[in-house]
Structure formats: structure tokens, C-alpha cells
């Protein structure tokens, strides 16, 4: 670990410039950015910038000063070098679906949006990899691979919008994580523009490269180690067959017991997703799937593999569900029915819009056997705060997503949401879990870092960040708790009333 | 704790992480002796110059189970735990760590993470990096830091545990590890095919990418290696020609179906022979494949990592040089044992220089991980700088600022 203490690092960190609109620096930076990416690739009009003042995490907001849309690695490198020259902070943005405020431009500066870099550069089935640009939408890669017998396994519920670059930065998971793993298990290598503008390759298309696992270290850096400009991802064989079921339970306790029994019996379904009564209601109202509205919980269970093995696996699952008082099990007999079942899961978030003007999705993790306790605690918290909380989550991984419903115009409700969230996450830690399974620390959970890790752990992380991003010019004040110093700027509140007290 | 002196290397055996951390802190602050972490000592000779002096820090007493919540399918153990001991504990619960480890009766968890050890089933299960969910480790200055946790999904903070995979004990001494486990499959079966031409093998391997079966491992070996592997497994198998051996795991039903199916599918590539190795013998044969990559009677063992589609090209060149070759075919990982006739350093360099020119290595890597100890100085582990080498050096400096941890090893890893 570096010998420097946090204090000395801060002292060495030069103050990043605040870009003042109308200043000569501002105009010449805009001009040089325009020369780099063309006029249509730069935004700096205050109205247009509003779109970029937050991502899926809407509690804190701050608009960048300039937004740029590069189309090549070289352009990204030039933009980053310009930011260094003008000493202004910058950060990457993919689709902006982050739920932890990863795209919040603290200190303003330049936002580099990668969505115009969305080509597939190579698909190699024999060697089982694809090379893609970072702005490629996750689902588009899946679609491009249709019919080849291969797919890209990580499939976050946001896959219709989120980008591969964003997935890599946040180490995204999804419904199929249980069997197939998260993003880091599927990234073989990448190209990145480091915060000083240099271009670097980590890992590669071969099964391994000698030395430290740097691409493994890069995945999940939440945009603080530079900008990913290319990704080499592993392709996975499509399973020969699936069985998809919806198991309806009278109570949440029965459903979670079934989950625990399945894992304990050594069954690893390809997906094991849970929806509680609140979500069932919302989904039913939006899509009319025919879910029983009085059910306590529904489990979406999918197993995949060789046709010859699946019926036996389904038999075992049915046995376990029956022993856990399942009320009924609906099986998808056709591809259309399977799609419909999945639609209910993937569009659950969309359906919540009908329940409430705003919602906050939490992302805690507990050991799988502790699911009953955390769900009970969530219910109790919901009652205690008088807040409606609904649950749809990756149950097989113990990754809960309590969704707290509120009205963002009501300051008191916001406060309750923050406090209730905090209590739930504390409980996850108490049960031996984590405060984030897939959404990341971002700005949202930064205060939890010193509760999960001690100062030595944080110093180790900081020394790694310092190797990539010594001046914290790239996506500043994310992931690690900011060092106490006058030099750091805080979030400028575009809407001060919505500010989340940390 | 005990401390002994042998030759120029002292030994320190910490009894706890805290003791390890205190020892490293003191060492960094006072004597600044060179530190060599050791686990099972199965491969300490690997590319390590013979004239080392300093302290071996041995993890043999860091071998306890910290926590095994069986129904969560995770386990937390100290890093000096031997792999066979770990296997025994989890196997009793119908679970396993699906990573192949040669000499598992000696190799330790810390050692296999530090060397990124893997074997045939990496094709379907990935490598140790995919199962480590949390680590604690002590850096060169004595700082005990952790990363990850004990749950299977967790993205809190940077993934420092990944950094330790393959770090060869040059960044930190791994002291405790949490692992994600998998259910133990019901059965294992293998099909042993022999072929008389590279063209047929290539077509057969390509066809595997769309096979109706789902192999767990695809091993290839030339006749020379096949003979040794078959002999080791004490099972009569044809080995006059090159071999592809495919393994399947799962329920009896699915394994049976697949072994027959692959024989059917591969008829069109006219194998010379196709033989199902039933589960009784399959385990022995499988173990012979796992052990072969590190069997060390030969003067030099090398490992090449190439694209799977270029594996045969590399193998053809190696076979011409009389190297016994085993490959995890679908991963493009090739192990080669140089012939006894390569008896001098000059012979070895001659062979290596020819291999290094192989076009398949343009996107790949050649590493040497076993050689006569007196050659170690002349044969660095990596034959070229890996991508990100400059960052690796900075990481080394950050975590081991006094260059105390396996430093000679690290500095000499790359051929200059
Ligand atoms: C409805 C909904 C469902 C979701 N479901 C899931 C889920 O199932 N699993 C899951 O893991 N997440 C989920 N998310 C969260 C989110 O979609 C993921 O974190 C996703 O990976 C973000 O991708 P993005 O392209 O939108 O990235 P952004 O939101 O644009 O950025 C996220 C972070 O990545 C950084 N970043 C983006 N691109 C790059 C790049 N090229 N280089 C470096 N850094 C970069 C940004 O700076 C930021 O820190 C969900 C979100 C929503 C709104
Ligand atoms: C460079 C190298 C590459 C190898 N690659 C492969 C491979 O690809 N496939 C394969 O099957 N086998 C490989 N092996 C051989 C062998 O399988 C492993 O070395 C063995 O499993 C390690 O276990 P061990 O406990 O015997 O370690 P030891 O032989 O005691 O030590 C091996 C290395 O790991 C370090 N080390 C040991 N314990 C720790 C610890 N707790 N923390 C930090 N560092 C530690 C040591 O300093 C040393 O560098 C490789 C060996 C080496 C040295």
C-alpha cells in the first residue's frame, strides 16, 4: 500500500477548476471539444444539460457543464487530455440507468457519453468471444447473437437500455446470475482510456494473460479508473432447453423456505426470482397476466440445460415447492408463455410507476438462508415508517431489491425513504451481507463504506484508485468516502429540497 | 508459532492473521528481510533463482475453517488450508470447489490463488477467480486488508481480491478466503478418441462448438503425453496417435446420453477409435489429466495460452520439437514437457526460441513454470510483458513499497 496517508494525497491533489460559463476557458474548451467530435457531438446549453443532471438515482442532482459524444477511442483520449489540460473533472456515462448515482457529475465538468460507440467489432464463435464498443446496449448484443447458438450471459433487468460499458463499470448482475455469474465472470479483456488520456489494454481474448488480473480489478470500478472504450466479452452456449415456472405461495415465508431448500438440495436454477404481493398487484394491473392478487409471493423459477435432464430437475423442484405449501404452479408450455412470464419480471419496475410518482430501489444482499429474516424486517420497517415497500428480486442470490414508494415533492417522505433504506441495509450487514449486490456504491452508499471496511481496507482501495486516477479527475468522490478537505467540492443541488442528507 | 533456520532461509509460521500482520509490520519497519510466502511448497522451484536469502513465511498453521454455512453454499477458511482437506469438508455436504488442483494433498488455497492454478474443467466452470468471494491478505508493510465478503453477490468497493489472483505472492500474503461452492455432480464419464490427422482433429473440435452435448472438459494430448497419462491412470487405452478426451458430468442419465451422442456426432470425422471410460475408471483418468500438467520429471515444463482456434498450430510445432503436449483444447491452454534430450540450457533455449516464433503466440503467451533450478535465472517466467505491465509494476510498488515480497521472483518474471 502506498506509504502516503490519505491526508498527504489530498494535499497533493490540485484543485480542479470550476468551469464558469462565459469564461474564456469555457469557450476555448468547447471549441476544442467541437474540433474533436464535431458540432453535433457537444452539448452545453443549460436546457439540454438537464437530461444529464442525474441517472436512475434521482435524489441528488447536478448538471455537467458540457456533454460530449465521442465515436472513437482516439476521440475519448483527446477529450480526456483536454480535461486534464483545463483541469476540469470528467466522467463517463452509458445509458444513465445507474441506481446509485454513478453518473452524477460532482463538481460539474465534462460528461463523456459513450452511446455513439456501439459497434460490434468482432464475433468469434470458435474462440467464444465478442469484441464490442462500450456504448452497445446489452440487449442488442444478445439480439445480434440470436441464431448462432451463443449468447452473452449477463442480462440485467435494464438490459433493453443499459450499455456494456456501464455493465462493466458496475459489474452488473441480473436474473441469470445464480447459474451464470455476474459481468466480471464474462469479461476477458478491455481497452480503456486512463484518466491521463493514455490508452491501455487489460486482459485479452485468450483464456488468461500472465500477471495480475487487471481486467478483473477494473470491472466494478464504477467509472473511477478511466473510461472503457472496448470490451472483449465471453460468449456462452445457449442451453438446449428450458423449463419456466411460476410458483404461487400464500406467504413470503413459504416462498423463501422453498428457495433455501432448493439451494440446499444442490439445485441451481438458471433463475430464481421473487415478486411479492405489492409487485404482483402492480404487474397485474399493468399487464393482466392473471396473477392471483391474494397470493403472498410468486417465484419465477427457470431451469435450463439438456432436455434429457430437465424433467427430473423439475420433479425435484415441484417436490420442494409442495413441501413448502405451494398454492399452485403454472408452467410455460410454449415459448410465448415463457416470454410472458419473463415479461412480468422484466417489466415489474415499469409497472411500479402506476403505484407511485417516485420510487427508490434498494439493493441489499444477505446469505441466502437469511432471506426470511430480511424480508420480515423489510415488512416491519414498512409498517414502522408508514411507507409502502414492494419487493421484486434475485432471490437465489440473496440479493433483495426492496422498492420504497414515495412522492419526491414531499420532503418528509424523502426523509423517511432515506432512513428506512438505511435501516434495511444496516440489517443486511448485521445478517452477514452487503449493502450492494449489483447497483454499486456510487454516491448513494458512500457513507456505508466505512461501516463495511476498516481504514486499512479503504486505504488499500484508495492506493489502487491512485494508480489509475491519482488526481481524482475522473468521476470524483465516488465509491470511497471523500477525504475531509476544503478542496473537495460537494454536490451542487439543482433542487435543494430534494437533497438527501448523508 | 515457530521459527527455524535452514540454509539461508529462515522460516516463520504464523498462528493467526494478526500474528502474520504484526510480523510483516515489524519486518518492514526494522530488518526489511526478503519475504517468501509458501503454502504447500509444491512449486517453489518454479522460476526461482537458487540463491535466495530471507524468510519463508509458511501458512501451514493458517488452516482452520472460519465459517461453513452449508445451506448457503459458501465457506470461509484460512488460506493455508490444503485443498484435499477443503475438498473433504465440503464433499461431506455434497458440495465442491470446482477447480482442479494438482498435488492437492499438499497445495494450499492461498497457493492456488497466488498461482491461478486451474485444470481441465475450467472450460465449463471457470477458474478460482470465479469462486473467491472474499479475501483477507497482508501486504508488504504489514497491513491486513480485506476485500469482498461472505455473500455470493457483492459489489461494495473495488474488487481487490481479483488483484491477488495470479499475483504469485508478490503483492500480499493471502490469509483468509471466502468461497462460493457448487453442488457435487452425480457422476463423471469420459470418451477417449484417437485420430490420425490434425485436419480431422481440427474439424472435430470445431464441431464441438455446436455439439448437442455439453462437455465439462475437452483435453487434447499428443501421443507422447497420451502414453504417460494412460499409464498413470492404469487403464488400457489406445495411445499410438493423438487423443481427444471429452468429459461429461451430471446425472447418470444425462452423462450416459451425452457419451453416446458424441460418439454418434463424431463418426463423420472418422476417429481411429472411440472408447467410453465409465465412471469407475474415469475419475482415475481424469486425475491423471489434472496431475500431468505439473508432473515434474522433465527438464522444463512450459505453458502456452493461445486462442483455441490456433491451439493445434502451436501443438504441431511443439510436437515436431519432441515436446509432450497436453492442452485444455477449448481454452487454448497448452502444457508442454520438454524431452530429456534437452539436457543443457543451450538446448532448451534453442527449443524455446523456435517456439516463440510461432504465429499463434502473436495473440498469446508463453510461460515457463518449471525448470532445473540452476537455469531459473536464465529462463524468466513470462516470455513477454503482459498487457498492463506498467500498472502491475505500480501495484507492486504500492503494496510492497520496500520490495520485500517475492521480489526477485517478481522482477525477474518478465524477459527483458
Ligand atoms: C429498471 C432498472 C433495472 C435494473 N436492473 C439491474 C439488474 O438487474 N442488475 C444490475 O446489475 N443493475 C440493474 N440496474 C442498474 C443499471 O442498469 C446497471 O448498473 C447498468 O450496468 C448501468 O449501465 P448504464 O449503461 O446505464 O450505465 P450508466 O448509468 O450510464 O453508468 C453507470 C456507471 O458506470 C460508469 N460508466 C458507464 N459507462 C462507462 C464506460 N464506458 N467506462 C467507464 N465507466 C462507465 C458511469 O460513470 C457510472 O459510474 C437496473 C436499473 C434500472 C433502471
Ligand atoms: C508461476 C506458477 C504458475 C503455475 N501455474 C499453474 C497452472 O496454470 N496450472 C496448474 O495446475 N498449476 C500451476 N502451478 C503449480 C501448482 O499447481 C501451484 O503452484 C500450487 O497449487 C500452489 O500451491 P502451494 O500451496 O503448493 O504453493 P507453493 O508452492 O507453496 O507456492 C507457490 C507460489 O504461491 C505463493 N503463495 C503460496 N501461498 C501463498 C499465500 N498464502 N499468499 C500469497 N502467495 C502465496 C508462493 O509465494 C509462490 O510464489 C503454477 C505454479 C507457479 C509457481
TrEMBL record, chain A:
- Note the superkingdom of the native organism: Bacteria
Q: Which GO terms describe its molecular function?
A: FAD binding; oxidoreductase activity
Q: Which UniProt keywords apply?
A: FAD, Flavoprotein, Oxidoreductase
Task: Tell me which EC number(s) this protein carries.
Answer: 1.-.-.-
One matching Pfam family is FAD_binding_4
Q: Please give the residue ranges the record annotates as the region Disordered.
A: 479-502
Q: Does the keyword Oxidoreductase apply?
A: yes
Q: Which residues form the FAD-binding PCMH-type domain?
A: 60-238
The keyword Flavoprotein appears for this protein: yes
Compositional bias per record (Basic and acidic residues), positions renumbered to this chain: 479-490
PANTHER family in the record:
GLYCOLATE OXIDASE SUBUNIT GLCD
Family the UniProt entry places it in: Belongs to the FAD-binding oxidoreductase/transferase type 4 family.
Question: What is the protein's name according to its record?
Answer: Putative FAD-linked oxidoreductase
